[in-house]
Amino acid sequence: MAPQVAYVTHGGGEELEENLVVRPTSEAIIGTMYANWVQSWRDLPILINQWANVVRWEKKTYPFLRTTEFLWQEGHTAHETEQEAEDETLKILNLYADVCENVLAMPVVKGRKTESEKFAGALRTYSIEALMGDGRALQAGTSHNLGQNFAKAFDITFQARDKTVQHVWGTSWGVTTRLVGGVIMVHGDDSGLVLPPAVAPYQVVIVPIGRDNWRETVLPTAKQIQAQLQAVRLRVTLDDRDERPGWKFSEWEMRGVPVRVEIGPKDIEKSAVMVARRDTREKQSLPMDGLVDRIKGLLDGIQRGLFDRAVQFREEHTQRASTYAEFNQILEGRPGFVIAPWCGSADCEAQIKADTQATIRNMPLGSTKPSGSCVRCDNLARVVR
User: Fold this and answer.
1) How many CB atoms lie within 10 A of CB 378?
2) For each of the chain's 385 residues, which pLDDT tens digit applies?
3) Lower CB count within 10 Å: N or C terminus of the chain?
4) Where does residue 224 fall: left (phi above 0), alpha (psi -120 to 50 degrees), or beta otherwise?
5) Would you say the C-alpha torsion 28, 34, 36, 40 has a positive or negative sign?
6) Contacts from 93-101 at CB under 8 Å and sequence distance 24+?
7) How many other CB atoms are found less than 10 A from the CB of residue 8?
8) C-alpha span between 318 and 313 (Å, rounded)
9) Which domains does the chain have, with CATH numbers?
């Protein structure tokens, strides 16, 4: 990580005798402590999970996606056997994928990174890759099987069951505030945010509509609806500001609130409310009787709909190539994902990147072994990427 490491060279107005490294990741800190804590197989497995800020000196930054300092969740484990470490690595990968898909409504592709793209010092690196609305790929999370490499570097040993002294098998994994950017780019539109109900700070906004006396005629009913929705643990806000309704509609659309409930004097007469979805912009009149259950169902439908829409977009922007000419033709635009057979050669990988700027995101788990030759050379294809 040397190109991205930030050093502190001066402190208190004086040059330091020894430069201090601003932490880019925590393997060194954790490894040092594990070497002191782990003595016996009875101490294993051991896991540290933390939320921490780290610094990486990026040449070019992007809000949320690539910043000099960022908050992330990272985990570090030590195990007795190689299989336990591999199981943990894949367990966390699946956990990250579950959060992305079932909470953020963001479909991902789980797979293994190539040797050139894996975490430095790792035995294997796995990632989840998502496709953004502009056709770009986003690495949404990584999980590393460190093997015994870091254990040997930091002398993390334990007395095994057979009384021999062995090095532990390690893992590390993390996701960052990059996921915030991912949600924005997967679901957002030209009017602003579109937030999945599972993570929206407010799932419902209630906007009272009326004339000068609306606080006496409409607001009491709006507050009753708010209380009913909050009683079933929905996150609800009531916009009782003295602003025009249209202005409020635009602001809450920009903020991405999944459901907007509009209520005015005529709605109260009909014992109904007007409900608008942020994702599809559809509006419908719903009776107040049974309104809570209907809105809960609507929120569930929005959550599923956002995921299904993102899956459809990914499928529409995923293409296959079997020849290099076909591969280059596809990459003339910004196609999204391209699936192609690869021989596994680092030279082919580097040449493809030099020719097209395309990078291998990962080698999808569970994909069938390809037949035929590599997309770039005549050698037998070994993996799909």
Assistant:
1) 7
2) 788 999 999 999 999 999 999 999 999 999 999 999 999 999 999 999 999 999 999 989 988 888 999 999 999 999 999 999 999 999 999 999 999 999 999 999 999 999 999 999 999 999 999 999 999 999 999 999 999 999 999 999 999 999 999 999 999 999 999 999 999 999 999 999 999 999 999 999 999 998 888 999 999 999 999 999 999 999 999 999 999 999 999 999 999 999 999 999 999 999 999 999 999 999 999 999 999 999 999 999 999 999 999 999 999 999 999 999 999 999 887 779 999 999 999 999 999 999 998 999 999 998 777 778 999 998 998 877 6
3) N
4) alpha
5) negative
6) 93/126, 93/127, 93/128, 93/141, 93/143, 93/173, 96/128, 96/140, 96/141, 96/143, 96/173, 96/175, 97/128, 97/141, 99/175, 100/128, 100/130, 100/140, 100/141, 100/179, 100/182, 101/307
7) 11
8) 9
9) 2-187 (3.30.930.10), 204-299 (3.40.50.800), 318-384 (3.30.110.30)
Residue 113 CA to residue 132 CA, distance in Å, equals 19
The pTM assigned to this predicted structure is 0.93
Distance CA(310)–CA(105), nearest Å, equals: 8
